Amino acid sequence: MSEKEQLIADIMGAHIRMQHLFADDRSDPLFSSHLTMSQLKILLLLARHGTLAGGELARLVGVGAAALSGMIDRLVVQELVTRTEDVHDRRIRRIGLTKAGTELIDGIITAGVAKQRDLLSRLSAEELAVVSQATHLLLREAAAIRDEASGQV
């Protein structure tokens, strides 16, 4: 194994070990939400895209309209999403997050932020500079991968 390959393996292994350490924390809102994977996917898509027409949401989730309708019914009962008529076409139902749905998803997405801040606060200024530089290098390459995938290069 080349030196570069060994370094990549070491970094990947360290990231996996850190994820396992963080995953042991059961205070994460994901563990208390009682959402199915499909329901979580719906909420994440709505958080990313905003209010969507039912048909568009069904396509993004990868299910039929009837299956989506049942999932949405359960999320409406939990007061996590709303179902409203489209203002331009009354046949179309638009699905959006409620305040509670937004707060739940925001809590799930940002659950690790406090843990990460606590972890970083334990490092010296010199160590933080190294982490900052490495993070910026990773962000640069992640943006390059995204741009290549979307044909923007």
From TrEMBL:
SMART domains reported for this sequence: HTH_MARR
UniProt keywords, alphabetically: DNA-binding, Transcription, Transcription regulation
Record-linked SUPFAM superfamilies: Winged helix' DNA-binding domain (SSF46785)
Keyword Magnesium: no
Superkingdom assignment: Bacteria
Keyword DNA-binding: yes
GO function term, MF aspect, one: DNA-binding transcription factor activity
Start and end residues of each HTH marR-type domain: 4-140
PROSITE patterns, A to Z: HTH_MARR_1, HTH_MARR_2
Family matches, as InterPro entries: HTH_MarR-typ, Tscrpt_reg_MarR-type_CS, WH-like_DNA-bd_sf, WH_DNA-bd_sf
Name of the molecule in the record: MarR family transcriptional regulator
Organism name: Actinoplanes awajinensis subsp. mycoplanecinus
